[in-house]
Write a structure and sequence with these properties.
heterotrimer, A mainly alpha (304), B mainly alpha (358), C alpha/beta (260), B: mainly alpha, C: 260 residues, alpha/beta, Rossmann fold, 38% helix
Chain lengths: 304, 358, 260
């Protein structure tokens, strides 16, 4: 039982990391209806910018600020040169454009900052928390705990930002109805640029967490792929959905990885590891069949 | 002056509904086929067959399969490579386990197996659309590749799922030279392209396009959405499956599950975006473009680097390749969403008027 | 009028439809007789389009009975309505934008085409014969609506009025026994309206098609329809021949406001 909880908690904590990436998706989708496949590539770019700047002698705090500037500029450029030109195109076209964007970043970022895997030191070590190890005999990573703290702070800040600032209100208005927002004088493109900036910031936080945990390398772009089933589970438009979805995906894939292979092995023989590679997708797919709008998404009625 | 339809009057509906209603198009296609079947085999070198022509045809077929699903029926899939993998492994297993099965039957069975799997993963399309569906197809991509790696029976117990394809015999003749393989692939691809063209110009294709353009209206005029979408998934996966079998048997000779990665699925998607979504010709143009671009960059980039005296590494070439792919996708979606096929069509319309455009 | 109005073929009894907490239709009953032109009128948001959507199965009412040609209908999907020869057009044109006029109208005959996709792929058996047969029928519709000149044009490039006409063509191609028209004349100029009126009357007259019509132009409605049902806020407030409805107190109130 102890082991079960250890796996469960470990899974939940890594689910928080997925949720961090999923948050970026939700922000952009809510405000502009764009499903941004490049979010994972942006995480990669953000982490690379930080280590890149540090390699050129910048201290951590400066590197973070520089990376934030890079991400914001990048977001604004994306809005201006790509998405603005695709206004009124069907969502699926925008989606494919962001796949193109993802490739663009994945080519550009390592050209600028180098492609070899590097470690990112942000002063937190990935080791078990001793108190828990001693009292409950469970291995819970200190790093994961800090990461979930960071995620909690980020979500709170975002929620406050949306709820209480002028820009936040405008953002919500835009998310609700583009036309109506435009007609009461909210500058749409301005708002979209801000959203991309915020998404860049979220990518930066996610990139630093993931980078510090697994090293800064190309595999960071795959975090986006894991965030997709999270979104399906949580609904594309819901911030709490992204968090809950992340937790469910994180916990279930770790449990599946531990408990399914032995069963399959005794049935078929051979080695059946690596289930976490597809389990979230199949889970999301099955979930879609039951509840297509996600846990927190809104049910959509087709008007004809 | 040459490309004109003036004077070609259609007096029957049959004449108006031909495969290629304009005479010059008909002649053009016949000329192309003649070159493909006679001209190329006479002159092409072994390198051309095995490094360019065969992969070009195989990828055209896969792109055609994806185009049927995405371009005509409007269902985006990010799992084409997985369906190719199903085809490749099915073909291998039919050859391995069914005594004396003819190779062409094997390819058909490979396609049918892929079609079956395609229907299974197409089921969510009944409830979800757009990028929700795209994400669902990722499940196919990862799950299928994992299965092929982990179930040893599928690869006849070879390590990490690598298979080496069997020899191909048709009426006792072995197809082993690149030239013979090329002709085999060409015949299959031409046949399947004609079949696709026939489907999309008949009520099957109209039902697909109706579902793509407006599914509520489609169901109101009596189209049943479920069978229509699933048929698109089945036919599309059939094409991808056959393409996968040819990829293994006629192009590489030995494949592993990881070769059918998400990366490959994306490449096939890029082919139809650049070539032309919803165009059969576009599938060919896109495949050629995506295949030739890296070859071109491999040659051109070092040349320019030397010219300007820039430092240069192979890693940079591959980064630039990825960057160029991404830029092109965005460029085409913004500037010409119907791809190269549309550009060709515009050229033809200009030609019709040439040299008196007013 | 020369035509013979027949028996009741569609009987709607106590229909109620809700979307979550929103009541779109409340306890509505009316019927449609064979060969008649039946208009549904009412202010915006009265539930007229929802009514049509209920008739051809796009929406499923929570309460009420629908009897079509003597058979009570259980939960029905739109494609089944098409198979019972009910065709319709939409308020916001619902043509297939990527296809030509000819292909759009050809889709109207899809329920009558029996060849399988294998026959289509190999172009043998019924495939070729059917295409030609149905093309002929479709050309008749094209002639009827006087749109020969645009048959190979993608519908996305056509002006609004013509798109409306093509949509009518797609519905007619199915040779429906009942035709549901959702604001067929909205956004048209006088000339286009006259053309459309002529087509509707011709269809009704020549083919005996029963027509259920939503329209805002009162002049047109009173002119061409046999009976009119009036909805307001999802409730029925009037039903009868045009003259009756015109003088109905409640209808006047709904249209002119409570002050009058």
């Amino acid at each position: 039982m102890n082991f079960f909880f250890e796996v469960l908690i470990g899974g939940l904590l890594s689910g928080v990391m997925y949720a961090l990436v999923a948050l970026g998706f939700v922000l952009i989708f809510k405000a502009s209806g764009v499903f941004n496949f490049a979010q994972g590539a942006m995480v990669y770019l953000a982490a690379l910018s930080v280590v890149g700047c540090m390699e050129h002698g910048a201290p951590l705090w400066l590197a973070i600020i520089l990376a934030f500037i890079i991400m914001t500029l990048f977001g604004i450029a994306t809005e201006k040169f790509v998405l603005r030109k695709l206004v009124n195109q069907p969502p699926i076209t925008l989606f494919m454009a962001t796949i193109g964007l993802a490739f663009f970043i994945e080519g550009l970022a390592p050209m600028v900052f180098g492609s070899e895997p590097r470690a990112l030191e942000i002063g937190i070590v990935d080791e078990p928390i001793e108190a828990i190890l001693e009292s409950a005999n469970m291995v819970i990573s200190k790093f994961d705990l800090v990461a979930s703290g960071v995620a909690a702070v980020l979500v709170t800040v975002l929620a406050l930002f949306f709820q209480y600032t002028r820009v936040g209100r405008a953002l919500r208005a835009v998310a609700d109805d583009h036309q109506a927002a435009l007609s009461i004088g909210i500058p749409l493109q301005h708002i979209w640029a801000i959203v991309w900036g915020v998404a860049g910031f979220v990518a930066l936080v996610a990139g630093m967490m993931w980078g510090a945990r697994n090293g800064v390398q190309f595999a960071l772009t795959f975090t986006a792929l894991k965030a997709l089933p999270v979104l399906i589970l949580g609904g594309f438009t819901s911030v709490p959905g992204a968090i809950v979805g992340g937790l469910i995906i994180g916990a279930s894939e770790k449990l599946a990885e531990i408990y399914i292979p032995p069963v399959m092995q005794s049935a078929f023989g051979g080695n059946f590891g690596g289930i976490e590679g597809w389990f979230p997708y199949v889970l999301a797919l099955l979930f879609l069949l039951v509840r297509p709008e996600g846990l927190f998404g809104e049910k959509h009625i087709d008007r004809v | 002056m040459l490309y004109r339809e003036a004077g070609q009057f259609k007096t029957t509906y049959a004449a108006d509904q031909q495969l290629f209603p304009i005479r010059q198009d008909r002649l053009g296609v016949i000329a192309l086929l003649a070159i493909g079947f006679v001209g190329v085999p006479l002159f092409a070198s072994e390198y051309w067959f095995s490094a360019i022509l065969i992969p070009f045809l195989v990828f055209s077929l896969a792109a055609l399969g994806l185009n049927i699903l995405t371009g005509y029926a409007g269902q985006l899939s990010l799992g084409s490579a997985a369906f190719m993998a199903v085809g490749a492994y099915a073909a291998y297993n039919f050859q391995l386990r069914v005594e004396g099965i003819p190779i062409l039957v094997t390819f058909i069975m490979a396609g049918l197996t892929a079609a079956g799997v395609g229907i299974l993963f197409g089921l969510p399309s009944l409830r979800i659309k757009g990028f929700y569906l795209a994400v669902a197809t990722l499940a196919a991509q990862f799950f299928i590749v994992w299965c092929l790696t982990k179930f040893p029976w599928l690869s006849n117990n070879s390590s990490s799922g690598v298979i080496s394809t069997q020899k191909m015999f048709i009426f006792g003749h072995e197809f082993d030279s690149p030239r013979e393989k090329y002709l085999l692939v060409l015949s299959i691809v031409v046949f399947l392209s004609l079949a696709a063209k026939n489907m999309v110009r008949s009520s099957t294709g109209r039902a697909w396009m109706a579902v793509r353009d407006m599914d509520v209206a489609a169901s109101v005029i009596g189209i049943r959405l479920m069978p229509t979408k699933l048929l698109a998934f089945a036919v599309s996966s059939f094409y991808c499956g056959v393409a996968g079998a040819l990829y293994a048997f006629c192009y590489l000779g030995s494949v592993e599950p990881d070769g059918f990665s998400l990366e490959l699925s994306f490449r096939i998607l890029f082919m139809i975006i650049i070539g032309g979504v919803g165009s059969i010709l576009g599938s060919y143009l896109g495949a050629a473009f995506i295949l030739l671009l890296p070859i071109f960059l491999d040659i051109a980039l070092p040349f320019f680097a030397n010219l300007f005296g820039l430092p240069f590494s192979t890693a940079t070439v591959s980064h630039i390749q990825v960057l160029v792919f991404g830029s092109l996708i965005m460029f085409f979606l913004i500037v010409e969403p119907h791809g190269l096929a549309r550009l060709w069509q515009i050229t033809k319309e200009k030609l019709r008027l040439w040299p008196f455009p007013h | 009028m020369s035509k013979q109005i027949g028996d009741v073929i569609l009987d709607l009894q106590n229909i109620s439809l809700r979307f979550g907490g929103v009541k779109a239709l409340t306890d509505i009953s009316f019927n449609v007789r064979e060969h008649e032109i039946r208009a549904i009128i009412g202010p915006n948001g009265a539930g007229k389009s929802s009514m049509l959507n209920v008739i051809n199965g796009v929406y499923h009412p929570q309460e009420g009975k629908i009897v079509f040609r003597g058979a009570q209908r259980e939960k029905m999907e739109p494609h089944m309505a098409a198979r019972q020869n009910i065709a319709r057009t939409f308020q916001n044109i619902a043509l297939f934008k990527g296809m030509t006029v000819l292909d759009n109208i050809m889709t109207g005959r899809i329920t009558k085409m029996k060849a399988s996709f294998v026959e289509h792929a190999l172009w043998f058996g019924r495939a070729k014969k059917e295409e030609l047969e149905h093309r002929k029928k479709v050309e008749e519709v094209i002639d009827f609506l006087e749109i020969q000149h645009i048959r190979k044009t993608p519908v996305g490039r056509l002006p609004y009025g013509l798109q409306k006409r093509v949509e009518l063509g797609r519905a007619l191609a199915a040779e429906p026994s009942m035709l549901l028209l959702d604001e067929p004349m909205a956004g048209m100029n006088v000339e286009e309206k006259q053309d459309m009126c002529r087509f509707i009357l011709d269809v009704n007259d020549q083919f005996g098609t029963t027509i259920v019509l939503i329209e805002h132009d009162m002049g047109v409605v009173m002119d061409i329809s046999d009976r009119v049902v009036v909805l307001d806020y999802g409730k029925k407030i009037g039903d009868g021949v045009p003259d009756e409805v015109k003088n109905n107190e409640e209808v006047i109130k709904a249209y002119l406001g409570a002050g009058h």
